[in-house]
Amino acid sequence: MTKYRRADPEISRRKFINVALGTAGAVGGLGLVTALAGVRPPNRITAGKVPAIEGDILVYAEGAQSGQPLKASDLTDKITRAWPQGKDKDGKPVIKKDEPNNLLIVFKFPPAEIVAPTDLKGVQDGVVAYSGICQHLGCQVGDNPSKPETILCPCHSGAYDPRAGCKVIGGPPPKPLPQLPIKLDAGGVMATGSLNGPYYGLTESDWKSLLEEAKTI
């Protein structure tokens, strides 16, 4: 299996770990693990680590319904965290939570509020999904109580607009959160493709290679 190389970090490993530990209270346990993912050694791909691909269903990542398929009727304009669930070679369901960068955030907005640069072909009935991982240093993003129309990374105050392709509207993130194209299926949410950009910390070329290998797992 192929090993994947992460892009050079913006700060030293030791300094980043200190930053991540310092923000653990704000980000939470899952968010801390995600933040540290960018400084771990290269990984070998497994069924639980491959990115979301076409046909994966989205399942709740937390709460009483953790591991159960998302219900479109439960979605709101606030973050719902989800994992993609695919199948292994034997056809058994696999929740892809062994790779923290697979964490997704899902919303439901009035359709007229969703505008470019959102990929509108990847949205259905106001439901839109993005990576839940900040593109600055790999922390987990969350709702922004002071500006509820945006989402916020608690590590360095990166802000995104989920109604407009999760474009960056404040702070240091260098690019938008990647969008996952979806459709509604039997009351749930299904991926119709993969994220339209790399995980935090992966190069474009490694991301493309990872997506190709994901099809074989």
Automatic annotation (TrEMBL):
Its cofactor is [2Fe-2S] cluster. Keywords: 2Fe-2S, Disulfide bond, Iron, Iron-sulfur, Membrane, Metal-binding, Transmembrane, Transmembrane helix. It comes from the Bacteria. Residues 91-191 form the Rieske domain. Pfam families: Rieske (PF00355). PANTHER family: CYTOCHROME B-C1 COMPLEX SUBUNIT RIESKE, MITOCHONDRIAL. This is Rieske 2Fe-2S domain-containing protein. The lineage of its organism: Bacteria, Thermotogati, Deinococcota, Deinococci, Deinococcales.
